[in-house]
Structures are given as C-alpha cells and as structure tokens.
C-alpha cells in the first residue's frame, strides 16, 4: 500500500473510537508539577544516560530557561487533556527555533525527561514533553495505566497502548506548527521504549515530524508472534495479558492470547501497521533507529525486515544517508549514553 493510503487507514483506526469526542484544539494554562507520579514501582533516581546528553555551557542556565506548562485539549473526556512541558532559552535570535518532542517510557512521566529537555534547550532547541495517556498528570494512582489497558481489553472503546497517544501527538503538531516561536518545518521527535513507539507511529502518520529518533522502541510485532518471541514485551504489561488469558479460558498466556489482545487494543499493530510496513513510510525524512543488540522486547532478528525495507526505500529516493540503524552490542532493553549521544548528533545534523 502507498504511504498516503496506509496513513489514511491508520487515521481511520484512530478516528474509529473517538468520532463523538472531537473538539476544536484549545490550550489551557498549567503550572509546574511538584510531585510527579511514577507508576508500577519504576526507578525514579538519576539517569546517567540522560544526564550525559551534550549541552552548551550557558551561565546561569536555569535562570535563562523559560518554562511553559499548559494543557492541550485534544478531545472530550479527562484523557483529552494533554499536559505539556516546554523549555526554551530566553533569547531573541532566531525568532523561530527548531523544536524536539521527547516521549517517556512506560510508567514514567514528562518530568523524568528534564535532563534531556534542559540539555537540548541549552543548545537552542525548543524542548517539549507530554505525559502519555494514563501517565503522569493523566494518572490518579499507581495502577492507572494497567487499569486502562485492562479496560480497553474488556470494552474495546479505547486504545491506550500507543495509538491514543499518537492522536495527541498529531494535535501537538497542530499546536507547534501554529506557534510564532517554532519553525514548523523543523519539528523533531524522539522517545524511549514506549516513547520510541509513540515517536515511530507519530512520524509514520504525520509528516510534520521531520527528523525521527525512536530509541529501543521499534519492534516487529508479527515477527514476535510468528517466532514465539513475544514474552518480554508481554511481561512489560503482564496484568493485561493475564486478564485476557482468564477471559479466554486459557491456563497460560500463549500466542493466541497475545494476538487477540493486540487486535482488540491496537488494531493492525501486528499486521498492516507493523514495522515492516510503517517504518519505510517515514522516507525521505531523516530516521535514526537505536536499539540494544540483546534487547528481548525489541529482538534484533525481528528488525531485519523493517530495517532492510527502510534502507531500500531511502536508497530509492537518493537519501541513503538519512537512514541509520544501530544495534548497540551487549545491550538489552536500555537507553545508553551512546544512544543519547547518537540521537543528539542526528538532530544537530538534520534538524
């Protein structure tokens, strides 16, 4: 299928569960979050990888940073209120700056990304982060995200795994494109793990994201099912699959359970929108894929087809230099300082 057709199909899936929820995009003022919510017992200490991000020496950086906290209203309902954190240098030139959107991993929140936001802002970028659906300010307790996944399985009326946040990121691109301080032709996007998947699908469906760096996020969902390598991904949100197993009368989670869950909560994730088909559609925009060679959630053998297809697509349009895949040896499902540096260099080169 051509890119335009596949994008239209994906947008139709997004619209299928929100036809009665649409509202004009509006902005509400917010305030800094004093006590960010981290779910599921995730580590909330320092991230040496993020803190290693290249930054420009700016005297009194904290005092020179402008911080904006606001909400984008992307649809009706409490999850239609997207918390946004924006950082930029308080300087006058240039008037319109490049912007990079940063997306957190499962169970974390936008505040977790502050070391990256500050580092990129010091170098003249506008740095933006949002709370993904059912995370951060969009969560009320330690199990909000898992509860939302279970509800999606039971009721089939929401898509909290990847797709609904992609809707928000389309709306975020609307907002950023209209801002007087943003160069609308220079909007980059990156994320870690779940955030990497958000970056991948947002860039696939919305060409306004012009430079893309998914970190430990790309995987072949169908490959994992066909090759019985789905366990690590399933384990990251296991209570959802346990609920489905019980509902389906199974004694253990198996391939059928996995496939039925994806079909219900993210239709097409393991078929027409899977990595071999959607990743090459990002062509000719600069795309850097960063993974760990030993990552069980994003197994490298399952990336061979999407990577080869993407490389071919970029070569065919004379843009082979705008696509790179790096699998860091000996690294599992972890964002490393090397990945942070590679991403930084990629944005500096192309954005």
UniProtKB/TrEMBL annotation:
The UniProt entry, under Gene3D superfamilies, shows:
alpha/beta hydrolase (3.40.50.1820)
Q: What is any one GO biological process for this UniProt entry?
A: proteolysis
Tell me the GO molecular function terms.
serine-type peptidase activity
Q: By its UniProt entry, which Pfam families does this protein fall under?
A: Peptidase_S9 (PF00326)
Where on the tree of life does the source sit, at the highest rank? Eukaryota
Q: InterPro entries from the xrefs?
A: AB_hydrolase_fold, Peptidase_S9_cat
Peptidase S9 prolyl oligopeptidase catalytic domain sequence ranges: 121-336
State the name under which the record lists this protein: Peptidase S9 prolyl oligopeptidase catalytic domain-containing protein
């Amino acid at each position: 299928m051509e890119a335009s057709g596949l994008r239209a199909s994906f947008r139709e899936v997004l619209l299928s569960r929100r036809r009665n929820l649409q509202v004009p995009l509006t902005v509400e003022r917010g305030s800094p979050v004093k006590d960010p919510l981290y779910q599921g017992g995730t580590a909330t200490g320092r991230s040496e990888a993020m803190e290693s991000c290249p930054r420009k020496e700016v005297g009194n950086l904290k005092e020179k940073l402008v911080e904006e906290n606001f909400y984008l209203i992307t649809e009706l309902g409490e999850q239609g209120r997207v918390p946004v954190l924006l950082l930029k240098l308080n300087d006058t030139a240039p008037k319109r700056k490049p912007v990079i959107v940063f997306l957190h991993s499962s169970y974390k929140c936008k505040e977790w990304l502050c070391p990256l936001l500050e580092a990129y802002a010091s170098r003249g970028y506008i740095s933006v982060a949002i709370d993904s659906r059912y995370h951060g300010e969009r969560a009320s307790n330690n199990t909000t995200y898992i509860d939302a996944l279970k509800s999606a399985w039971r009721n089939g009326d929401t898509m909290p795994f990847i797709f609904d946040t992609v809707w928000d990121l389309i709306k975020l691109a609307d907002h950023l494109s209209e801002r007087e301080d943003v160069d609308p032709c220079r909007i980059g996007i990156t994320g870690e793990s779940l955030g990497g998947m958000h970056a991948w699908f947002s860039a696939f469906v919305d060409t306004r994201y012009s430079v893309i760096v998914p970190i430990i996020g790309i995987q072949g969902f169908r490959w994992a099912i066909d090759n019985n390598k789905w366990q690590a991904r399933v384990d990251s949100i296991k209570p959802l699959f346990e609920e489905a197993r019980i509902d389906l009368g199974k004694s253990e989670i198996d391939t059928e359970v996995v496939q039925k869950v994806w079909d219900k909560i993210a239709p097409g994730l393991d078929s027409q929108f899977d990595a071999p088909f959607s990743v090459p559609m990002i062509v000719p925009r600069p795309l850097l894929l960063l993974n760990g060679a030993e990552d069980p959630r994003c197994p490298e053998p399952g990336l061979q087809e999407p990577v080869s297809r993407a490389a071919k697509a970029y070569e065919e349009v004379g843009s082979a230099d705008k696509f790179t895949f790096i699998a860091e040896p000996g690294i599992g499902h972890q964002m490393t300082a090397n990945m942070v540096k590679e991403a930084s260099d990629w944005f500096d080169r192309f954005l």
